[in-house]
């Protein structure tokens, strides 16, 4: 992925923090959304890790990934309950202190009456030293950014608002463009000419995704050509489309 | 997750191999299924990584995870096209050779006429030295198991068949049981008594999952108690249910 023109790309990893996803109780809805939005704006999502609500695991994932990618996003674990340990884990990963942040506390008070701002809710204003806040238009409790790590909520509606709030301030690369060509063929029947095209266009990324068409029960293949350069995308895409046509004519 | 009684547990990690998931084009459907099935049978899924179709990334993920967990499952990248590099990557991770396996070739011939078994399709019979095969009742091309690593297809229907084929031969622990209690309350209003219960039952795992109820637009909370011991589950679950009742009565 992006190997061919990786040097100029802006990259990201995502850490999903959540026992509930690993146990299968909750089906994650954030990975697909974040993957799409980052691709749209020209940030290449290169790796996702789903880890448990365990401090050592969160710290290890963040420290491994923040060295390797331009940005690391996290989702989950920033609420008011005992199992919300993301902010403390991020502070530990960076080796900095953490305390109630007056700016975050003021944001909470826009939504929560002062009498309801109990000790548990005040935990949502605990922000690692040196972090900037990521606003949350839905329920006010902010995310934050420290270094290249961006910490967001796990509730999809809130996460999406935070992502839109932070995207404008991030560095972007040339967006990866893509073109999908449907082949009414099993991938094994077109694999050889497809490989030849992939070798002819080494700077494009060509993927082959077989699926079973529920309408007629047959296995078909989506061929996806990706490139940052529109001329390259067109040339490689046309080559694939022509190959698919020829294969259909037998 | 499972920290309290982790010593007796059987653990797993999952590596999802797929550019198409990282680009957002395809929404993964395998993680949730595998998480549920492993939980059912008593294998704790502890980490998931989604990596690109890049050999170095696949090798690094497999080698990092196979040291740490009882089993590592992979999905994706075992088809006939140029971008299917999982089998070669796994062979490299284990430092073993790889070639067309006569058993796997025979399986392919149950489904594919010999004249259609072209060079591309024969790639699906390339199996690392020393691996055992995982049968595929859907389209025959097998997965495989080498050491504690189990390699499966990415197409959900085929992956599911392979998972069911391999599960009977795996070691299992005591299944993690769970009980979900719905609180018609924001989690910030019940966080303090919930923390007290979590501290009273350190061997249970108690999670709090806020969500917005689309029916009435209100934020509510699912409280999930998990334990391997049924008596512990009942005691901790009853404590949470009683707390939720008391909170509702104000």
Automatic annotation (TrEMBL), chains A, B:
InterPro entries: CinA, FLAD1_M, MoaB/Mog-like_dom_sf, MoaB/Mog_dom. It comes from the Bacteria. This is Molybdopterin binding domain. Residues 13-173 form the MoaB/Mog domain. It comes from Xanthobacter autotrophicus (strain ATCC BAA-1158 / Py2). SMART domains: MoCF_biosynth.
């Amino acid at each position: 992925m992006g190997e061919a023109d990786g040097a100029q790309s802006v990259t990201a990893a995502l850490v999903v923090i959540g026992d509930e996803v690993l146990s299968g109780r909750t089906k994650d809805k954030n990975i697909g959304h974040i993957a799409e939005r980052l691709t749209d704006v020209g940030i290449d999502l290169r790796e996702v890790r789903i880890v448990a609500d365990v401090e050592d695991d969160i710290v290890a994932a963040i420290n491994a990934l923040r060295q390797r990618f331009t940005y690391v996003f996290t989702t989950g674990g920033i609420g008011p309950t005992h199992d919300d340990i993301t902010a403390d884990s991020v502070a530990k990963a960076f080796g900095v202190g953490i305390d109630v942040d007056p700016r975050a506390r003021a944001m909470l008070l826009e939504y929560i009456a002062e009498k309801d701002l109990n000790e548990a809710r005040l935990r949502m204003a605990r922000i690692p030293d040196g972090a900037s806040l990521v606003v949350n238009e839905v329920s006010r409790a902010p995310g934050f950014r420290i270094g290249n790590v961006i910490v967001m909520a796990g509730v999809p509606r809130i996460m999406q608002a935070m992502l839109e709030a932070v995207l404008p301030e991030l560095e972007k690369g040339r967006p990866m463009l893509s073109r999908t060509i449907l082949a009414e063929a099993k991938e094994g029947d077109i694999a050889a000419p497809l490989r030849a095209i992939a070798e002819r266009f080494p700077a494009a990324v060509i993927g082959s995704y077989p699926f079973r068409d529920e309408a007629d029960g047959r296995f078909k293949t989506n061929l996806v050509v990706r490139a940052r350069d529109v001329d390259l995308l067109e040339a490689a895409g046309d080559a694939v489309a022509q190959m698919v046509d020829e294969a259909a004519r037998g």
